[in-house]
Amino acid sequence: MNWEEIKNTLWNILVNGGWTLLKLIGIFLVGYIVIRIIKSILRKVLRKSPMDRLAKKFIYKTLVVVMYTILVVILIQVAGIPVTGLIAGLTALGLAVGLALQDSLSSLANGVILIITKPFKENDVILVNGIEGKVKSINFFTTTIDTWDNKRIIIPNKNMINYEIENINYHEKRRFSVNFKVPFGTDIKKLREVCVNAMLSHEMIYVDPKPTLWVKEITQEGIDVEARAWSISDECDATSMEMHEILFNELKRNGFEIAQNKLIIYNEQRNKKPYYDKTPLNKRDLNKQPESKKETHLSFDDVVDGIILKPIKRKKKKNKEINENIELETIKEENDNKKNKLKNKISDDKVEEKTLKEKSNKKNKTK
What we know:
Layout: H1 3-48, H2 53-79, H3 83-100, H4 102-117, E1 125-128, E2 131-138, E3 142-147, E4 152-156, H5 157-162, E5 165-167, E6 173-182, H6 188-200, E7 212-218, E8 223-232, H7 236-253, H8 300-366
Antiparallel strand pairs: 1-2, 1-5, 2-3, 3-4, 6-8, 7-8
Helix pairs in contact: 1-2, 6-7
């Protein structure tokens, strides 16, 4: 091989390699700019979306990874590297990693399911496998719960999916019950009236649905009754405990007894009345319902409506208001023109009348 052939070979390699390198650089720059634009648009859309913060974060990161993966595959194909062998190697590596991290990947997949289906969200009170508390965070691998005695429980997401989840304060209002037993000689009608009035005195109890009292069972020891009322979900447990004390005091105040297994021995103190809190019931406005500050859960349709339909509706409403304003201005302008024409006509009539008078006066003088 002479020098001329070596020179031609090097030149061909340089030209072909340089052209490929330039193509790679160009595709990378274009792809990078396009990804940056898409990321910017995605951030704006997700910022306006009513979805949970974690769901937004997950969607954003997933789409960014997918876009960069597509860009890398395109660059590999342009460079002339066989993609088939690379995919086979990555598949084998992914299989080995998947077997090693089986439990972690299961928790990750279940975390994605929790984020998408949203059976609960942050600050909801849930009961899972006997553990009750407030949800503090939902991560990709675990869910963190703070119990009522201030313990932090971290549960793998695969367990969250496998066990039954009870979302205690999912709805805005929740019913609670106070159960007790009264003797056979109790006037149930009067007892119902006293209990309903006592429950309505509490600000956190709904007037509608109205509180009530039911006879549950009649046993050998007495009559089992249940006082029921509705309260705001977030305040339901505290309201229930307060109502136990309020009902106890009201029963004693109105002379009702709570049935119990007892042996009565009569002596000189048999008429002594039991002690109870004599503070009168709280007076409230029954026309006002308790107000909940709880955030409502959004369905997938609500999310789509918030992202796509609501901006369109707002734009239509704004355009309608603009058109109405233009129409009002047009009507006002027409009215103003009519008034000006009428004024001009009146003015012309006066001028004409004055001119006729002047002519008439001149004629009279001439005569």
